[in-house]
Design goal:
mainly beta; ten-stranded antiparallel β-sheet; 2 helices; 10 strands; 43% strand; globular
């Protein structure tokens, strides 16, 4: 997992010591919410990440602290988060997945999300944190397309 904070899109790779499998990651600059949250979430920040291991790809938002999101649907081992996302000026409804105890939330429709990352200038994600007003994270996408080219490998 990349270190926080960053100011531009970057990439890294890791190797699974057990299997030898290589995973590569591209990640956005670190951002704070557009409006600072109150205690105990006042120091929250996040980045948008894309991972690839040659077999599959995934997209997630990684936070520096544990999320305490409201308006979620509890499933077996994870929560479903129904919220809104804005690509440039287009607002859409979206469902995200948060495994219990994870420091990230994951997008479901990976191919569509990666395409939107490549073809958009910015993305604004709305989340509802317990005891807070709706919270928004705006991730810049300038440089994302070039960085994603460096990590993406042909899928079998």
């Amino acid at each position: 997992t990349p270190e926080l904070p960053r100011t531009s899109w970057d990439h890294s790779e890791s190797k699974d010591e057990m299997t030898g499998e290589i995973s590569v990651y591209a990640y956005s600059p670190t951002v704070e919410p557009t409006t600072k949250m109150g205690f105990p979430y006042q120091d929250t920040n996040a980045f948008l990440g894309v991972g690839c291991n040659g077999k599959r790809e995934w997209v997630c938002v990684v936070f520096n602290i544990a999320q305490n999101l409201s308006d979620t649907k509890i499933e077996d081992g994870y929560n479903l988060i129904k919220t809104r996302i804005k690509w440039n000026e287009s607002v859409e409804n979206i469902t995200l997945t948060q495994k219990w105890g994870a420091s990230f939330i994951q997008f479901d429709d990976t191919a569509s999300i990666i395409s939107k990352i490549i073809n958009s200038n910015s993305v604004l994600l709305e989340l509802h944190w317990y005891g807070q007003e709706p919270t928004y994270f705006k991730f810049p996408l300038n440089g994302a397309s070039e960085t994603l080219k460096t990590i993406r490998v042909p899928m079998p």
